[in-house]
Amino acid sequence: MKSSLPDSRIPSLKSMLEDDRFRNFLWQFIFFILIVFLLGKASSQVISALRTRGMMPSFKFLTLSSGIVVGEKLIEFDSSSSNLKALMVGLLNTISISLLVIVFSSIFGLFVAICRISSNWLVSNIAKAYIEIIRNIPLLLLLLVWYRAFFLQMPGIKNAIMLGKTVSNEGVTKASLILSNRGLFLAWPTPTEPFVMYRFILLGATVAALLVWIFLRVRSGKTGKKALGFLWATLAFLAIAAAGWLSMGANHPLRLDFPRLGKFNANGGLYISSEWFSLFSGLVLYTSAFVAEAFRAGIQGVPKGQMEAARALGLGHLRSLRLIVIPQAKIVAIPPLTSIFLGIAKNTSLGVAIGFPDLFSITGTIINQTGRALEMIILVMAIYLLMSTATSLFMNWYNKRVQLIEH
Amino acid sequence: MDSKAKNSAFFWLRKNLFSSWLNTLLTIGVVWCVAAVALKAIFPMFSMDWSVIGDNLKLIMTGSYPADQLWRVWLCISYISLFGGSSFGYGYRKLPIVFISILIFQFLLLFLPFSLLSKAFLCINIALALLGFYLIRLFPKSTQTGIIIGAWLLLLPFTFLVIYGFTDPSGFMPKITTNYWGGLLLSMIISLTSILFSFPIGLLLAIGRRSNLKLIKLICTAFIELVRGVPLITILFIGYLIIPLALPSSLNPSVFIRAMIGIIAFHSAYMAENFRGGFQGIPRTQYEAAMSLNLSKPKTMILIILPQVLKRMIPVLVSSFTGTLKDTSLISIIGLLDLIGISSAIASNPKYMTSNSQVLLFMALIYFILCYSISGASNKIEKALGITTKQAGKS
Amino acid sequence: MTHEMNKELIIECENVHKWYSPEFEVLKGVSYNFYKGEVTVIIGPSGSGKSSFIRTINGLEEHQQGMIRVNGIELTHNVKSINAIRGKCGMVFQSFNLFPHLNVLSNITLAPIWVNRLSKKDAEQRAYELLERVGISNHALKYPGQLSGGEQQRVAIARSLAMDPQIMLFDEPTSALDPEMIKEVLDVMTELANSHMTLIVITHELGFARAVADHILFFDQGKIVETGTPEEFFGSPKTERTKLFLSQILHH
After folding, report:
1. Residue A323 lies in a domain
2. ipTM above 0.85, yes or no
3. How far apart are CA C166 and CA C196, in angstroms?
4. Which positions 150-169 of C are in contact with B (Cβ < 8 Å)?
5. How far apart are CA A299 and CA A312, in angstroms?
């Protein structure tokens, strides 16, 4: 009854081919060879094709000066800055606009979702119409319509809409607000020389605020008393910042920069270009529709009995919503929200169609200027992948946090 | 309250719009806003010059397709009419409202100033649709299924054959290369082709992702996650810039082909994710039952698992068509003159430079009608299938 | 039910171990021999490993250590041996596991047509015979969703029988059924036993065990704690564990 191994320890080929595990290995081996062969062939083709054009793949071109002019930038940049810096500008533009879109579309989407489930027929159906329209047209078209049919229809710089207009002696027109088809200019505080000192005061204020917050949280943890930690921290910050400001007397660390009207455009203050704003508002408009549907599914996914039970316990309508319904709604809503948020950064790439210098747009420009298509595409795909992965990880972590604990 | 009061419009208004102070305020506020928007944005639309649409209709619909060959495009539409009618006849005993409204819509189009050829074909299409609706009944049920499925599968090869052509220029169906295709025609062809190919490729990817062969699982997962993590436009750029480098210089794939490959690759990854959901709905015990009956893994997949998965996937497939149609609009960025690309072409004409908004709004309307109808169809199919499976459920 | 002299070994299990991880060992050295034509009932608390045990016998799950031999063929990684063994064993599951997209007839004829290469005609003929045997020939063209639990399980039994197995394995076949349907399934199983089919049955139905079984195995914590004929087992259980278990289940 002992297990009968064949006497020869070396298994025959036949028995190996019949072995489950060997077969698995063999299939994988064949696939491996196939993939390596195909990829190898393709890459060698690409490299040799590039070589004939005199462009061996390398990333050195990134350090070369770009010669690109960019309309919006969050960091210092001009046409002599390197290509790498140009890419950074694009990346920062993409990230900043994506984050803002996420915030605003969540808010607006929630609002639309609440409208959608309202008992008022008009409100509910207008929300429904909005959602249906957005869902059935391509984002590109929406952006184009929004940009061309709306923003570009704003008056030209000569007829710009202005608020708080003043004309100086030299004939320079300044205003608090200048709106034209180039974009919006707003008077905005800018740092002056004393700001260098003021920065330290601000830093101290932040540290103090943090300490206040931590202290209050710890104390509330120990005593169980509710602590308005955030409120006090904010007050502390403002108090110290204000004290610092006053103490500097007439040397204001910030001064209001008023936009000046020029021949073709304005200058100074905060500049929100038509491109930025139409991309931003277009994306918010687009994304909110999907966010609204996700929220609606979430809210309607919570059994009615939950609300009834909460009310039966004496909780008010709003409090029931906040403590019982919305936490459970989150669970249902998070998976679709995840894919929506993942899509936002990718959707910003459509800025290329309306001239907004997002990451992809700048990539296209760099490719045009340097011809380094392969390297740039690899680079930009890697960057997008990183962003997707980061967002994905965050949403998964958040998802786990809100999931019901089941056995 | 008697039923008369219940049904009256007054009662309805009270309930839905004015049920409380808040509601009343809301209603008034909303009506005011809607009126303001209508005055400022909607009514001016009617006074805009819409002649740009009429003048460029052929361009919008078919791009630079030669005008004397348009009958071939109509031929494909006739194919769709015939078998669309048959599909309705397959599913319904009596003429359904949707079907009738489509026919009425086509009938109404006859009154618009289209060419004689177009009008002739519109009449032919209406006739073919009705013909298909009634003729399909002549066949036994199983043959009907075969005909319907076969017809839809053959739609794309047929379309390609007819639109591309196969004779030399003097023949009756001269070849017209893809750079002449444009407008709605191009969008539809690319979307349909994409679905046709991304369905099986996505399925294979999904199966590969579930495989217990680690390498295959790795490759499929890597591909799916890579493609889903980047914007479509980057994939299109890869197709546009790098495919020509990767292939031997003898092959020179047209922009059409390169865009096609990019779109198919993109949608295969998303299809794979859809399938993944479908597979996860099949309980492990189905595999075990098949295993204990000594069915091999391939046979299990084909005979047991796939039929169940595919059935669930049909509404997803139909609704993904709308996604594909919308995504296809991105090919305008790499220079293909699809529906949106045509708008730039029209705008470059100095005569129509100021009419850009009209063109874009018209395209938005086209997309809306197309996508909305397809989603509606998908919902109907889902309902129909749901009912079918329920009837096979507990009686 | 069979004489000692006619005993023919059909399944040998020697020191079978199965683990999912170093901490989680589900079969801890199980050795037992099954004989042709006999009915063996396996009972025991949940988690005792009995389900894992019979699933290793037909290769549905892997065992890491030990030897299992079915009708002389050893169960290894050899694909041919696995197929041969699976061909000899039929299995009936707790949750029936019928294929929902096929009707009853197709459920039964699928494997014979595609694995055993029977013609459609032969397969259907055999299917009707089996449906007759389990008592539901009038439901042949219905879908699983239209049948009751008891009817579905009987179809499942017919489906396994269609492959002409020598051994039938039952993994708690009646646990998911409403009480009024349990009898019809047990009746079919009794009929199978009477026709000298080798059965291995995991069940909580002790009445069935007492009436039909030739041997009873008591599993606990991955091991066979006690074996015996029904008279021995129920009448004079040997170990404390068995006595405890019996007292728990016989008193409700």
Report:
1. no
2. yes
3. 10
4. 156, 159-160, 163
5. 19
Least confident of A61-70, A222-231, B67-76, B370-379: A222-231
Asked if the structure places residue A233 within a domain, the reply is yes
- Would you say residue A358 lies in a domain? no
Q: In what order do the strands lie in the sheet with C198-202?
A: C89-92, C167-171, C198-202, C39-43, C215-220, C223-228
Q: Which residues of C touch A23 (CB under 8 A)?
A: 79
Number of domains making up chain C: 1
Determine contact: B304 vs chain C, CB below 8 A. Answer: yes
Nearest residue of C to residue A21 by CA position?
A: C77
**Alpha carbon B197 to its chain's center:** 14
C-alpha separations of A308 from A111, A338, C224 in Å: 23, 30, 53
B392 CB within 8 Å of a chain C CB: yes
pLDDT tens digit string along B270-325?
A: 999 889 888 888 888 999 999 999 998 899 999 999 999 988 888 788 878 888 99
Binding partners of A (≥3 Cβ pairs within 8 A): B, C
**B389 pLDDT exceeds 50?**
no
Provide DSSP, A208-241. Answer: HHHHHHHHHHHHHHHH-----HHHHHHHHHHHHH
Judge whether B395 is closer than 8 Å to chain C, CB to CB: yes
Render pLDDT for C203-231 as a digit per residue (tens, 0 to 9): 988 889 999 999 999 998 888 888 888 88
Residue C174 lies in a domain: yes
CATH number of the domain where residue C23 is located: 3.40.50.300
Q: Which helix (H) or strand (E) holds C228?
A: strand C223-228
Neighboring chain B residues of A138 at a CB cutoff of 8 Å:
325-327, 329-330, 340, 367
The answer to the question of residue A199 being in a domain is: yes
Write the pLDDT tens digit of every residue in A80-107.
Answer: 777 888 888 889 889 999 999 999 999 9
| Residues from chain B contacting residue C146 (CB–CB below 8 Å) | 392-395
Closest residue of A to B370, CA-based? A136
C-alpha to C-alpha distance for C151 and C134, rounded to whole angstroms: 9
Contact of B311 with chain C, judged by CB distance below 8 Å, is answered with: yes
Closest CA–CA distance from residue B169 to any residue of chain A (Å):
35
Taking contacts as CB-CB distances below 8 angstroms, the residues of chain A near C79 are 18-20, 23
How close is the nearest chain C Cα to the Cα of A2, in Å? Answer: 8
Between chains, do A384 and B16 touch, taking CB under 8 Å as contact? no
Domain that residue A204 falls in: 195-253
State the Cα–Cα distance between residues C91 and C74, nearest whole angstrom: 19
Domains of chain B from N-terminus onward? 3-47 (no CATH), 66-175 (no CATH), 186-395 (1.10.3720.10)
- Report the residue of chain A nearest B232, measured CA to CA: A346
Q: How far is B326 from chain A (nearest CA, A)?
A: 5
| B294–chain C Cβ distance below 8 A for any pair | yes
Report the distance separating Cα A151 and Cα A354, nearest Å.
11
Mutation target for A interface from C76, C82, C86: give the one with most A CBs within 10 A.
C76
Which value, to the nearest 10 degrees, does the dihedral of the CA atoms of residues C153, C158, C159, C162 take? 170
Rg (CA), chain B: 25
Q: Kindly report the pTM of this predicted structure.
A: 0.82
Residue C99 φ/ψ, nearest 5 degrees: -85, 115
Model confidence at B376: pLDDT above 70: yes
User: Domain range for residue C193?
Assistant: 4-97+166-250
Contact residues, chain C, for B293 at CB < 8 Å: 86, 110-111, 115, 159-160, 163
Is C67 in contact with A21 (Cβ distance < 8 A)? Answer: no
Does residue C220 fall inside a structural domain? yes
- pLDDT at residue A238 greater than cutoff 60: yes
Structural domain count of chain A: 1
Residue C198 domain-assigned (yes or no): yes
